[in-house]
TrEMBL record:
InterPro entries with a match to the protein in the record: Acyl_Trfase/lysoPLipase (IPR016035), NTE (IPR050301), PNPLA_dom (IPR002641)
PANTHER family per the UniProt record, alphabetical: BLR7027 PROTEIN, NEUROPATHY TARGET ESTERASE/SWISS CHEESE D.MELANOGASTER
Keyword Nucleotidyltransferase included in the entry's annotation: no
Name this polypeptide is given: NTE family protein
Residue span of motif DGA/G: 191-193
Residue span of motif GXSXG: 40-44
Residue span, PNPLA domain: 5-204
Motif GXGXXG per UniProt: ranges: 9-14
Amino acid sequence: MTRGLVLGGGGITGIAWMTGLVAGLAEAGVDVRTAEMVVGTSAGSVVGAQLRSGTPVEELYAYQASPYVAKPGEQVASISPSVLARYAVAFLRGRGDSRRMCRALGAYAVAQTRAGRTPTLEERYAAIRERLPSLEWPAEPLVATAVDVATGELRGLDAASGVSLLEAVAASCAVPGVYPPVPLEGRDHVDGGARSYVNADLARDCERVLVLAPVDRAIGPMRRASEQLAGVRHEVVRPDARSRAAIGRNVLDPARRSISAEAGRAQAADVAERVRALWSD
């Protein structure tokens, strides 16, 4: 593998921001879709599947930048303070062990779903299906990350994993406590972001790696992208001040989708040269 593209987690606004960034880079002459490997976590798994589908980038961007129209009775999800508090407990219980932390988050996710505090699995499949231009695994390498609830282990789901693309992306987007765990081969799985916002280390075999990270934090046993890619040539692009303002506090708010996409596209002009230096030489 020569070039790896890592797409991190960041909710609905993260999908929009990354799509805008990719569109802006393409406009500047840097086509990141040529990556030999794409690794997506949560929102990044959606963007990865969209980019690998062959859908024109401008078409993907046009959707993200279009005005959001709420469906009748639609409720906007959020990662509430109570959910964040449970995450903090899991970080503490992890005591620096990523798998222990992920098991705690997985157990919380299962309990929330059993208590009826998340959408149904069928509702989640329907929501993810709407975001995927194709339900077939692409011919080019694509990895969607998810965490096995029972073991706390990270899984890189790809065309050889035995699960469908829909299942893989739904599992990668199963935010603990917000959305239901996804059963894969009889085992519950949650968002790959439970282990890392980026999981950039899955691209360490690439000679150079570009990371688009709506969120990139080191919390508890979590590590930032640059730490995960130590010794590998890489660039990490995070939201600038304008993009952070557009994304806002609730990354699951679709009403902020269009301004997040526009901010990502505008930011591309500022990072295009350093991305080009990484990607094109």
